[in-house]
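[step 3/7] fold_predict: job queued, chain A
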Amino acid sequence: MSAPLLPTLNAGLNAAAAVAIVTGVLAIRRRRVGVHRAAMLTAFGVSTAFLVSYVVYHYQAGSRPFPGGGWLRTAYLTILLTHTVLAVVIVPLVLTTLYRALTCQFARHVRIARWTFPFWLYVSVTGVVVDWMLYRG
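[step 4/7] structure written:
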């Protein structure tokens, strides 16, 4: 896939991850463990595909400065900063949460998942917002 198409793919992968995360949380709240497992594994797979695509894009194309100014630039940079910091934080959280689920450490899984869920969802949604602001806004 060519570099110019990757930002659109990345936004789609982030959106798909957000949908899968919300689906998984709603499923477990309804005690639908199988649906929860499938949704969260999907979110993990899609997020992993995003990370690979993101690295490939930035390797090929480098970085792109925000084209706007004023308050919009301030908003963009604020969203980007929080997104970036939490994107780094979320990797070990997701891996630990997934490990605890796969090794049947469910009490420990639930404790960390309560933190993982909002951070992961925030990173996925703001990934779409950052893409929109940078490439389509």
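[step 5/7] annotate
The helical segments are 6-29, 33-61, 70-102, 106-136.
The chain has a mean pLDDT of 95.
exit 0
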